[in-house]
Amino acid sequence: MSSPPYSLQSVALLGPLIKGNAQRLAQRLKSGITSPVDAYTLCGLFSFEVICQAGFAKDFSNDTNGAAAHKLLQAMDGSALTLLFDGALPFVARFDIGTKLPGVIGDSYRKRDYWREKSYEMVDHFLEKSADDEKYLLTPLATGVDGYLGRKLTHEELVEEAMGYMFAGSGTTSSTLTYLLYELSKPENAAIQERLRAEVLAIPDDDIVAIRNNAYINAVIKEAFRAHPTIISTIPRLLTEPLTLGQYVLPSGTVIGMQNWLHHHDASVFPEPEKFIPERWLNETSEMKSALTPFSIGKRNCIGQNLAWQELYWAVSEVMRSGSRFRVAEEMKDWEMEMEDRFNIAPRGRRLMLTVSPVD
């Protein structure tokens, strides 16, 4: 029921919407000309604002400094802890006392309530004003019949879907974009940033097809996927038939795990795997193509990958067209950008401070 809105054709209709948000990201990054700017926060705002607008017509364009979107994004992130507390402390949910508790526990439940309250407001506004517009991701869920349930979704179920869109549709793309900017902004990668900028500027502003087909732009994005996969957790799968691994045969019914960090950093496929080398993708081999799995593979791969690619293409295009050159701020320490597994990765320091200077 959720796949058609994420088709390449459907996502293309969201191009102007995504481009507008990418332009706002580029303008916000320009504030780093006067003092270092936190690209981690701004990338989070970009992907969150895109999914809210693409999903259910919530437009944050009047929120120029991102305060309202950032408060909602923080509430969503902070509420994730309630999943742990609901399992470890089931009486909290049973007696509905979470918001009354002190400290981290109570704070996470209060954030979840705020996120849910705002989600109801956004869904209600969408149903009143935009539910018949087919370009929005929530439209088929609001107007169609669920194939599994055999009925339309209830209001509560629709809000749950919207919250799922926000959670799943923002963190992964923002993580990729954060680490892409980090790599481009390292002093040793200055030539990569300059070449990427030149490639983008050689393409007309609105030609997303040319952006999508440009070999070097794709190489930079793929290398960001490879070097910093957004989901580094071991993803379990159940074997439906025996699997031979070397001298071992795993029987049907065995639970196995897949972790893309390992094959993304396989030196036999990617020489010098710890280095950021986009040029390696200009001579892509079949082994490289098979080893790159940022969206997983098979029936359970990411249904939102076309949207993610579209966001990254527009973000790279607009940031590189902004007339800004980026460098990692001197105050940043290496450990701050170590990847922390929170299902979606996040920098351990929860920031990426960049200095910005005008392109000569």
Automatic annotation (TrEMBL):
GO MF term set: heme binding; iron ion binding; monooxygenase activity; oxidoreductase activity, acting on paired donors, with incorporation or reduction of molecular oxygen
Coiled coil ranges: none
PROSITE patterns reported for this sequence: CYTOCHROME_P450
Pfam families registered for this protein in UniProt: p450
Residues the record lists as binding heme: 302
Keywords assigned by UniProt, alphabetized: Heme, Iron, Metal-binding, Monooxygenase, Oxidoreductase
SUPFAM superfamilies given in the database record: Cytochrome P450
Cofactor(s) needed for function: heme
Top-level taxon of the source organism: Eukaryota
Family to which this protein belongs: Belongs to the cytochrome P450 family.
Full protein name: Cytochrome P450
